[in-house]
Amino acid sequence: MADVYTGAEPDLAALLAARPAFSMNVREGLSFESVPLNAIADQFGTPVWVYGAGSIRARFAALKAAFAGENLPVHIHYAVKANDHLAILSQFQRLGAGADVVSIGEFLRARQAGVAAADIVYSGVGKSAEELETALGQGIGQINVESAEELEMLSGIATRLGVTAPVVLRMNPDVDAGTHAKITTGLAENKFGIAAADIPALYAHAASLPGIRALGLALHIGSQILSTEPYAKAYAKAADMVRALRDQRLSVEVLDLGGGIGIGYHDEPGMNLAAFAATIRRTVGDLGVRLMVEPGRYLVGPAGLLLASVILQKRTQKRFVVLDAAMNELMRPALYEAWHGILPVDPALFHTAQTQADVVGPICESADCFAQDRALPDLPPGTRVALLDTGAYGAVMSSAYNARPRAASVLVDGGKAVLITPRQPPQDLWADEIVPA
Fold first, then answer.
1. Domains (range + CATH), the chain
2. pLDDT of residue 181
3. What is d(CA 190, CA 329) in angstroms, rounded to the nearest whole number?
């Protein structure tokens, strides 16, 4: 499972209690950051993504406080792939975060949101020559090189442009993050990074190449990590590598520690930030390097929800609750077998009898399923439900499959809801298509 969890499945009350941004009022029903979800659905329809600016700020502050508690000057680069909406990116830019990007589109999005190019890290295994030219031309702060081939290509581009590329080599530490195979990135069999055994020679080569400034090392072992143990193993290997490079009289100024900080999708607390910060201090805190992390899910996952309405309940050999949201909105359950809590918005439904149900969407795929055998009350047509913790890898992975227009998005802040993405009109689905004569 993507979300490693061994406890009993939480009931509705436990789900609600574990999420302080949510509250239940007997008249207005379920609210998020003091905004009733019924009011959002009435105004903007469903399905609709709802994000909380207050939650984003609080989670960013908690991570900064954890580092400060260990006297660690760690710079935070938000992983844009988790949620690339300009309204979200702008929140992090105002908080002083940099950005971690994996495509030129994400780079340009971050720039549009006001993030300085010097505060952007460019990761990813397949950067094209055109993408690297654009990033270098705008003065990107760091490029995480993932192969010897990429390093040579980058040297040629930088030399031709007459610039110096700030390079960090991504080391694959061959550490199992203990998470779903599809979101593990630090094993030798994964496509990511450079084998640790190859780093010393390649780093020395990078330091000699024209157009290249070798700054340090990076690593990233996976996503949705709930234990500090894999971090400790990976960071210890990184520390050994830094010392080995310095023994060769090579300069190492930067250590990019990646991201992957897990959250609680059930009613568990998720990663212990104090323990995470202590692990960093214990393993790499004495290296005298510039430290950075690249969290995404931790910062925005619990800061978002997908608000949907029940179309109907279908009863065959089992009960199916069919929503107006589908896998084209939220792909994670189909892609990663991911678990998301589901809360009814109507307060009366928290106190009625519950039976097992599969919660599904209307798409013609058996994989279009949000939950199986979930204990839920009777949910008649028109009932509204909130799919929890969908601020990361939700809307950013959505599509128009089955010719379903993209959902609207709303940002709540200070008790007010503001539309940040209008619902896509159906005719926009084919507006740019050309039928040849």
1. 12-46+303-429 (2.40.37.10), 54-299 (3.20.20.10)
2. 47
3. 28
Say if residues 120 and 110 touch (Cβ distance below 8 Å). yes
At residue 161, the pLDDT reads 97
Give the span between the Cα atoms of 227 and 101, in whole angstroms.
Answer: 25
Question: For the residues of 77-140, what is the DSSP string, one character each?
Answer: EEEGGG---HHHHHHHHHHT-EEEESSHHHHHHHHHTT--GGGEEE--S---HHHHHHHHHTT-
Binding-site sequence positions: 260, 294-297, 332, 336, 365, 393
Find the angle CA(3)-CA(267)-CA(398) to the nearest 5 degrees: 50
Residue with tokens 């239940």: 24
Helix or strand holding residue 49 (H, E): strand 48-52
Phi and psi of 169, rounded to 5°? -90, 130
Q: Is 149 helix (H, G, I), strand (E, B) or coil?
A: helix
pLDDT at 267: 94
How deeply is 89 buried, as exposed, middle or buried, from its count of CB atoms within 10 A (0-12, 13-18, 19+)? buried
Residues contacting residue 119 through CB under 8 Å, at least 6 positions apart: 77, 97, 98, 99, 141
Binding residues for pyridoxal 5'-phosphate: 260, 294-297, 393
Q: What integer pLDDT is reported at residue 145 of this predicted model? A: 96
Per-residue confidence (pLDDT) for residue 336, from 0 to 100: 87
Q: Supply φ then ψ for residue 298, to 5 degrees.
A: -55, -40
Spatial separation of the C-alpha atoms in residues 346 and 350, rounded to whole Å: 8
Q: Judge whether 364 counts as a catalytic residue.
A: yes
CA dihedral 391, 394, 396, 398 (to 10 degrees): -150
Rounded Cα distance, 167 and 147, in Å:
12
CB 384 within 8 A of CB 345: yes
β-bridge partners, 385:
308, 344
Binding-site residues for substrate: 297, 332, 336, 365, 393
Q: Which of 8, 26, 364, 403 is catalytic?
A: 364
The whole-number mean pLDDT for each consecutive block of 10 residues of the chain, a chain of 437 residues, reads 63 96 95 98 98 98 98 97 98 98 97 98 94 97 95 97 97 67 48 85 96 97 90 94 97 96 94 97 97 98 98 95 98 94 97 96 96 97 98 97 97 98 97 96
Angle, CA 197 vertex, CA 195 and CA 199 arms, to 5°: 75
